[in-house]
Amino acid sequence: MSLKDQLSEDLKDAMRQQDDVRKTTVRLAMTAIKNAEVTVRTEMDESGATVTIAARTELDDDGVMAVLAKEAKQRRDSIEAFKKADRQDLVDKESAELRVLEAYLPETMSRDDVMAAAKETISEVEATGPSDKGKVMKALMPKLAGRAEGREINEIVTELLAS
């Protein structure tokens, strides 16, 4: 079963169980996926008028996973902002939504695991210093996609290449 089908089944299940948090979160995720599947571009026709063209492409499980990871990251960022604003009610709401989204994502890697993967990739691409950071990131990011945040990966690679 594809991830989109799983989300659809989970939405039906949440509706049956009257689980408002899961229902709302899954609906928001499915909307974000649909939005990611639609590409809109503007072109000029023969008369010089501007024409908007919308095209829909189906996302595979990796694409859906990327959208869910983005949604989870938005929740984490919101939690940080709400903590700073001392809004515990909103922190609780966003945390509940984040837990629902994390159920669909692969387990997040620890800093030590990311560091080990970065060291391995650095030796694979034979990086020698900070100037090779682009090569390392290009090879490492697909390996860790959805399992570690880009900011953390960037920090670790920068730290390892500087030493």
In short:
The protein is mainly alpha-helical. It contains seven helices and two strands. The protein is globular, with a radius of gyration of 20 Å.
In terms of per-residue confidence, which ranges show pLDDT below 50 for 5 or more consecutive residues? none
- What's the structural domain tally? 2
Strand content: 5-15%
How are the strands of the largest sheet arranged?
A: 1-2
Name of the level-1 CATH class of the largest domain: Mainly Alpha
Treating each run of at least 4 consecutive H or I residues as one helix, how many helices? 7
Largest sheet descriptor? 2 strands, antiparallel
Spatial shape: globular
The percent range for helix content is: 55-70%
**Global Rg:** 20 Å
- From the N-terminal CA to the C-terminal CA, the straight-line distance is 45 Å
Mind telling me the CATH superfamily name of the largest domain? Uncharacterised protein YqeY/AIM41, N-terminal domain
CATH topology value of the largest domain: Hypothetical Protein Yqey, Chain: A, domain1
Instruction: List how many beta strands DSSP finds.
Output: 2
Structural class: mainly alpha
Quickly give the CATH architecture of the largest domain.
Answer: Orthogonal Bundle
| Series of H and E elements | HHEEHHHHH
Q: Report the mean per-residue pLDDT as an integer.
A: 89
